[in-house]
Amino acid sequence: MTHDDPVATRRVELGERLSAVRARIVRACETVDRDPAEVTLIAVTKFFPASDIDLLVELGVTAIGENRDQEASAKLGSVSRREELTVHFIGQLQTNKAASVVRYADVVQSVDRPKLVAALDRAAAAHGVRPSVLVQVSLDPDGLGRGGARPEQARALADEVRGCDHLQLRGVMGVAPLGADPGQAFAKLREVAHGIRAGHEGATWISAGMSADLEAAVAHGATHLRVGSAILGSRQSHR
Ligand SMILES: *Cc1c(COP(=O)(O)O)cnc(C)c1O
Fold this sequence. Notes:
- The protein is of the alpha/beta class.
- It is built from nine helices and eight strands.
- Helix 3 (69-76) links the parallel strand 2 (63-66) and strand 3.
- Helix 4 (98-104) crosses helix 5.
- Residues 44, 46, 67, 90-91, 175, 210-212, 226-230 line the site of pyridoxal-5'-phosphate.
């Protein structure tokens, strides 16, 4: 390897970090007797360039997450093997961005209110697509904080998604609150997920866990992990 080739250097760096994350997932699954094949790794590429996404695809990544519409819509046009990727939108979403998001997002994970459900359904119909949707559940003790519907409202929101012809209800997403035990938060999320699944058989996804808490998420039934900095490095230096 030539160390003065920045692309080659970055490929090695991403490859090493990705291997380490994959090893963590395998270990976490072994600990709780789960099959790693049940867990989808989503590389969260916000703040990082399209060239990094290209390298991740070369390294076998099949799903990426983005949290800002403007950045994602601009960036994804330059990704060379876009058709090999599932794109997850994971950020707070204004209704007036729904039309833009359905153009590139295969999955919208951050659906947290009825108005957004309606806007996404209309936008999906207009664009001729049928994106997958997760209901984002707030896991903060006071119900708010990092986005999401209150746990007691999640079921009704899931019913609304289910009633939309152009959206596919897949399950739930949650972010563990800062400074609290992520295991407790993910246990709550799993409980909400099971409540929703009781009414909607296809709603089997639980998106939980990030760089710092993916082990706890795996232990509490996560099917999708959203991992950014552990793969791509600190976002600070890229702002
Ligand atoms: C940025 C982000 C992540 C990834 O966080 P890391 O700590 O970098 O792994 C996961 N989920 C959401 C909703 C995010 O916005």
